[in-house]
Model the fold of this input.
Amino acid sequence: MKRINSETKARLKKVSAKTVYILAVGILYYLFASITEIGIPCIIKKITGKFCPGCGISRMFMALFKGDLRAAANYNLLVITLLLPSLFFVSRNIIIYIKTGSRNFDIPEQIFVVIVFIMIIAFWIMRNTERFSWLAP
Done:
């Protein structure tokens, strides 16, 4: 059996601590929003009256936690569509970081990031047009 060196252990501990922190904040936000029905307001929506690409994400996750995939997709179709591929790439990158200490993206990850960026811009434009108003949360 291969022994884990101290640098790998330190990276694993760092990633684990950040993961626990992110999950704790997410759970606390979920509980707060569920009880108070107060969510994070969108500054872009307040200023421009237009939906940003992230509008509806809080409600999307709330619906996901309740098991309502249809409602989650209605709140933010782009994020729900990209959730699994993004989790795959993030998990893969975390594993590589823990094992090697490298934070570099390889070519498939770079291509994925560019494609996601293009999709975000297109989604932002589309959800604010009358023809694609069904993409609004």
